[in-house]
Design brief:
Protein name (chain A): Glutathione-regulated potassium-efflux system protein KefC
Order of helices and strands of chain B: EHEHHEHEHHEEH
Radius of gyration of chain B: 16 Å
Subcellular location (chain A): Cell inner membrane
Radius of gyration of chain A: 32 Å
GO molecular function (chain A): antiporter activity; monoatomic cation transmembrane transporter activity
Number of domains of chain B: 1
Keywords (chain A): Antiport, Cell inner membrane, Cell membrane, Ion transport, Membrane, Potassium, Potassium transport, Transmembrane, Transmembrane helix, Transport
Largest sheet of chain A: 6 strands, parallel
Largest interface: A-B, 22 and 22 residues
Helix content of chain A: 55-70%
Oligomer: heterodimer
Number of helices of chain A: 27
Shape of chain A: globular
Pfam family, one (chain A): Na_H_Exchanger
Strand order of the largest sheet of chain A: 3-2-1-4-5-6
Largest sheet of chain B: 6 strands, parallel
CATH topology of chain B: Rossmann fold
CATH class of the largest domain in chain A: Mainly Alpha
Chain lengths: ~625, ~170
C-alpha cells in the first residue's frame, strides 16, 4: 500500500478521521487528539496504510496557513495593539528563556554550544495549529489566558524568521551544496537584502489589500458564481503564502499578516465563510500527518531517551512559561493553562530541524529522536490542555487560593446571581427602587470592570451553597437567577430551593425547554430572556404599520398573555407525555391558540390590510361633499 | 387644544368626523391621549407645559358609562395637580375655557327626566363642570353628538361643521 493512489489514500484518511474524531470527542479528548490517534493508527508503524506521511504533511501544512489567515482576519489591529506587551514581552522572554535553558541542558548533555543553541531555539517554539484549534474547541480562545497564549504563539511565528537567518552561522558540519536553499529563493542573498525583500513583500500585501482587493473582489463577485468567490479567496491565501515563502518568511506568518490587513474590509465575512471548511479539513489532515509521522520504531529502540526528552521538554517549557506568565501578572490558574498549553514542540520544529540538518548545524543523529519527541509532545497537548483547563477552574473556584470569592456579608433583600447584560438591568432597577441587593458573578474580569464603574459586585460562583449563604440567602427574600449558562442556572435554582425553602426565586430562562426545566424546579417565576424584547419589537412594528398605539400595546399584551398561558399548558404536557406526543400536542395546541389569538387581535387592531375607512369610502365622499356645502354659505 | 381620548377611535365614525375637521383648522392642537400614552404612563410635566401654551381646553371623548374613558380620568388625576391647577398657588389653569365635547350612543331624548338615561347631559357632566370650576376655568356649554352610531354621512358632516364652528367661536369669540 506504500504507493497508494490518490483515491485510496483519501479513503484511508477520511475513514480514519470519521472513525476516530467522533470517538475522541465523545471521550472528551477533543478533535485534535482524535486526528493524531487516527494518524498514528494509519501511519507506517502501526497499520501502514499510507505512504510517506511527509507528502501529505506538505499539503496539510496549508491548513495551518489558512488557519492563521483566518485568525488574522478576525483580529482587529486594536486588539493586536492591546496585546503588544504580551506579544513582545511574554513571547520574547519565552523564546529567549526556554531557548537558553534548553541550550544549557543540551550543553550539559555534551552537545557543542552551536548545536545546543540551534536545538534550544527550535524547541522553544510551540504548535500554533494544535493549541489554537484546541483552545477554540474548548471555548477559551477569547479568555485572558487564551489571548495571552495566542500572543506568545504569534511571537514564536515571527521568531522563526531570524532563526532561519541565524542557523547558517552556527554550521559546524560539512554540507552538500544547495542544501540551504530550502529557506527560500532569496536565501543566497545577504541578510539586509532579505530584510528589504520581507518589508517590500509585506508592504505589497498591505497596499494590495487596501487598494486592489476591493475592486477585484467586486469584479469577481459580479460573476454571480459562488464557487468563483471561494476560488478567489483561496487564491488570495495561496498567493500570499507563495510570496512569503519566496522572501523566506513562514507562509503561515505571511497569511496572518494578510489576514490582519483584510480584517477591516467589507468582504471579511464572505472570505471567512468561504474558506473556513478548507481550514477544518486541511488542519485535520495536518494533525493526522503529525500522528502518522511519529517514529514508533525509534521510540521502541530508545524508549528512555525519547520519553526523557518529551518529559524534559514539557517540564522546561511549562515551568518557564508559568513563571513568565506569573511575572506578567496572570493569575495562577491562567498561568498554569498558558504553561501547560504551550509546553509542546511546534510543527515548525520539523521545518527547522530539517533546515538545520541540511545546513549542517545539527547532525541527523540528534534531530531524529528530537523529531519524535516533538511529535509526541504535540500528541500530548490535548491532554495537557485538559490538565491546564482543570487547573484554571480549580484555582478560580476554590477558596483560599489566588482569587478567593469576595462576598460582602450583611443583610440584603435581594440576591442577583449573574451580573451580565441581563442581571445588570434587573439589579439596577431594583436598587434604584431602594432595595439592598447583593450581586454575585463568577466572571472575574466582569467583576473588575463593574467595580471600575463603581458598582458593588461580589465575586464567586453562585451555585456554591456556602457562597450563597455568605451573600445572605438565608435572610434575603428573593433570589434572581440571571446567569447565562442554562445548566448552571438550573443547578442554582435546585440548590437554593432545597437549602432555603422560604426564599422566592425568579429566573431568566434561555429558551422554552429551559423554561420547562426551571418550572419543574419550582421557580416562583421566570422570564424568557428574549421574549419581552421580541414582543416589544412586534408592538413597534404594528405602530409603524399605522395601527393606533393603544391597540398595538394591547395586542402585545394579549399576545404575551396567550403565549404565557400556552407555556404553562405545554409545560404540563411536557411533564406528562413522551417527546413525540409532546410535539403533536404542541402542534395542535399552537394551531388552536393562534386561532383564538388572531380573533382577539383583529377585534382590537383591525385587519392587517386596507384603508382605515375601508368600505366606507363612499360614505366618506358623501361626508366630505356635505361638509363642503355647509362651509359655503357662511 | 383638544384633549382627545378614544381607546379605539378608528371604529368611531363620529369622533373621526369631528377630528377630521379639527385637523384642518389652524390654531388647533389635537392631543391624542391614547396614542401618546398607550401605556397610561402620563408625562405630567409635558402635559402641563402643553396646557400653559393653550387658552382653550376641549376634552373630547365618547360618553362611556356617563363618564369618560379611563385615560381621561388618569389625565385629570395626575396633570391637574394640587398647587398647580387648584389649591394653594394653583392658578395655572385660571381663565382658560373648558369645553366638554362628547359623543353618545343613544338619542338626545333619552337624556332627561323621562328618558332611559334619567338625567340631562348638563347634569351628567357635573363632575367635569366642578373640576373646571375648581381650576378657575370658564365652563362652556358642552358640545354633544347623540346617536353617534346611527348617523348618516350628512348628519356626520353637519355635526362636524357645527364642531368646527364651535371651535372658531372659542378662538375668535
Amino acid at each position: 500500500m506504500a504507493e497508494a493512489n490518490l483515491l485510496e489514500s483519501a479513503f484511508v484518511y477520511l475513514t480514519a478521521t470519521v472513525v476516530s474524531v467522533p470517538v475522541a470527542k465523545r471521550l472528551g479528548l477533543g478533535s485534535v487528539l482524535g486526528y493524531l490517534i487516527a494518524g498514528a493508527l494509519i501511519g507506517p508503524y502501526v497499520l501502514n496504510l499510507v505512504g510517506d506521511p511527509e507528502n501529505v504533511m506538505h499539503t496539510a501544512e496549508f491548513g495551518v496557513v489558512i488557519m492563521l489567515f483566518l485568525i488574522g482576519l478576525e483580529l482587529q489591529p486594536a486588539l493586536l495593539w492591546r496585546l503588544r506587551t504580551a506579544i513582545v514581552g511574554m513571547g520574547g522572554l519565552q523564546v529567549v528563556g526556554t531557548g537558553a535553558i534548553a541550550t544549557a541542558i543540551g550543553m550539559a548533555l555534551g552537545l557543542s554550544w552551536q548545536v545546543a543553541l540551534a536545538v534550544g531555539l527550535t524547541l522553544s517554539l510551540s504548535s500554533t495549529a494544535i493549541v489554537l484549534q484546541s483552545l477554540r474547541e474548548k471555548g477559551i480562545a477569547g479568555t485572558e489566558a487564551g489571548r495571552t497564549t495566542f500572543a506568545v504563539l504569534l511571537f514564536q511565528d515571527i521568531a522563526i524568521i531570524p532563526m532561519l537567518a541565524l542557523f547558517p552561522f552556527l554550521a559546524t558540519l560539512q554540507v552538500a551544496d544547495g542544501a540551504a536553499a530550502k529557506a527560500g529563493a532569496l536565501a543566497g542573498y545577504p541578510g539586509w537584502a532579505q530584510g528589504i525583500a520581507v518589508v517590500l513583500a509585506v508592504g505589497a500585501i498591505v497596499l494590495a489589500g487596501r487598494v486592489l482587493l476591493r475592486p477585484m473582489f467586486r469584479w469577481v463577485a459580479a460573476s454571480g458564481l459562488h464557487e468563483i468567490l471561494t476560488a478567489f479567496a483561496l487564491l488570495l491565501v495561496v498567493g500570499v503564502a507563495l510570496l512569503m515563502q519566496f522572501v523566506g518568511i513562514s507562509p503561515a506568518l505571511g497569511a496572518f499578516v494578510a489576514g490582519v490587513v483584510l480584517a477591516d474590509s467589507e468582504f471579511r465575512h464572505q472570505i471567512e465563510s468561504d474558506i473556513d471548511p478548507f481550514r477544518g479539513l486541511l488542519l485535520g489532515l495536518f494533525f493526522i500527518s503529525v500522528g502518522a509521522g511519529i517514529n514508533f520504531a525509534l521510540l521502541v529502540a530508545q524508549p528512555f531517551l525519547i520519553l526523557g526528552l518529551v518529559v524534559g521538554l514539557i517540564l522546561v517549557k511549562a515551568v518557564t512559561l508559568y513563571v513568565i506568565a506569573r511575572a506578567f501578572g496572570r493569575k495562577k490558574g491562567e498561568a498554569a493553562l498558558i504553561g501547560l498549553g504551550l509546553a509542546q514542540g511546534g510543527e515548525f520544529a520539523f521545518v527547522l530541524f530539517a533546515f538545520a540538518q541540511g545546513a549542517g548545524v545539527i547532525p541527523a543523529s540528534v534531530t531524529a529522536p528530537l523529531v519524535v519527541a516533538v511529535a509526541l509532545s504535540m500528541a500530548l497537548t490535548p491532554l495537557l490542555l485538559m490538565a491546564g483547563d482543570w487547573a484554571m477552574r480549580r484555582f478560580e473556584t476554590s477558596p483560599g487560593e489566588d482569587r478567593a470569592p469576595e462576598v460582602e456579608e450583611g443583610h440584603h433583600d435581594i440576591i442577583v446571581a449573574g451580573y451580565g447584560r441581563f442581571g445588570q438591568i434587573v439589579g439596577r432597577m431594583l436598587s434604584t427602587y431602594g432595595y439592598k441587593i447583593s450581586v454575585l458573578d463568577h466572571d472575574a474580569d466582569q467583576v473588575d470592570v463593574l467595580r471600575g464603574f463603581g458598582r458593588k459586585v461580589n465575586y464567586g460562583d453562585a451555585t456554591r451553597l456556602d457562597l450563597l449563604r455568605l451573600a445572605g440567602a438565608a435572610e434575603a427574600r428573593l433570589l434572581i437567577v440571571a446567569i447565562d449558562d442554562d445548566e448552571k442556572a438550573l443547578e442554582l435554582v435546585k440548590t437554593a430551593r432545597e437549602a432555603f425553602p422560604n426564599l422566592k426565586i425568579l429566573a431568566r430562562a434561555i429558551d422554552r425547554r429551559h423554561a420547562y426545566q426551571l418550572m419543574a424546579a419550582q421557580v416562583d417565576g421566570l422570564e424568557r430572556e428574549t421574549f419581552a424584547a421580541a414582543v416589544r419589537l412586534g408592538v413597534k412594528s404594528l405602530k409603524l404599520m399605522g395601527k393606533p398605539a393603544f391597540a398595538a400595546e394591547r395586542a402585545g399584551m394579549i399576545f404575551t398573555r396567550y403565549d404565557e398561558r400556552a407555556l404553562l399548558a405545554m409545560f404540563e404536557d411536557w411533564q406528562r407525555v413522551e417527546f413525540a406526543d409532546y410535539q403533536r400536542i404542541v402542534r395542535d395546541r399552537t394551531a388552536l391558540e393562534e386561532e383564538l389569538l388572531k380573533r382577539d387581535m383583529i377585534a382590537l387592531v383591525g385587519k392587517s390590510d386596507g384603508d382605515e375607512w375601508g368600505e366606507e369610502t363612499l360614505e366618506r365622499e358623501a361626508f366630505e361633499r356635505r361638509l363642503a356645502e355647509r362651509a359655503k354659505p357662511d | 387644544m383638544i384633549i382627545f381620548a378614544h381607546p379605539s377611535y378608528l371604529r368611531s365614525r363620529a369622533n373621526r368626523a369631528l377630528r377630521a375637521v379639527a385637523e384642518r383648522m389652524d390654531h388647533v392642537t389635537i392631543h391624542d391621549l391614547y396614542e401618546t400614552y398607550a401605556d397610561f404612563l402620563i408625562d405630567v410635566e409635558a402635559e402641563q407645559r402643553l396646557l400653559l401654551d393653550h387658552d382653550h381646553i376641549v376634552l373630547m371623548h365618547p360618553f362611556f358609562w356617563y363618564s369618560a374613558p379611563p385615560l381621561i380620568k388618569e389625565w385629570l388625576d395626575v396633570v391637574l395637580d394640587y398647587g398647580w391647577a387648584y389649591g394653594e398657588g394653583g392658578t395655572a389653569m385660571a381663565g382658560k375655557t373648558w369645553t366638554q365635547a362628547v359623543t353618545t350612543g343613544s338619542a338626545a331624548h333619552t337624556y332627561g327626566p323621562e328618558g332611559s338615561n334619567r338625567f340631562t347631559m348638563e347634569e351628567l357632566l357635573r363632575p367635569f363642570e366642578a373640576t373646571a370650576h375648581l381650576c378657575q376655568c370658564r365652563w362652556q356649554p358642552p358640545f354633544v353628538v347623540h346617536s353617534s352610531r346611527q348617523m348618516t354621512p350628512d348628519a356626520l358632516a353637519d355635526a362636524a361643521h357645527d364642531f368646527a364652528a364651535m371651535l372658531e367661536g372659542l378662538i375668535h369669540g
